[in-house]
Amino acid sequence: MNNAPSITARTVTIQTDGACAFFSGSLVIAEVNRIVSGGAEILAGDVSTIDITRLTQMDTAGAWFLVEQQMRAESDGKDLSIIGGSEAQQQLIETVRQNLIEPDEADLRPQTWADQLEDFGRTVVQGGRKAAALVSFLGQIVATMAGIIIHPRRLRLTSVVHHCQEIGLNAVPIVALMAFLIGVVLAFQGSAQLRQFGAEVFVVDLIAISILRELGILLTAIIVAGRSGSAFTASIGSMKMREEIDAMRTLGLDPVTILVVPRVLALMLMLPALGFIADLSGLIGGALMSWIELGVSPAVFQSRLVSNTDVWHFAVGMIKAPFFALIIGVIGCYEGMLVGGNAESLGRRTSTSVVLAIFMVIVVDAMFSIFFAVVGV
Question: How many CB atoms sit inside 10 A of residue 46's CB?
Answer without folding.
Answer: 9
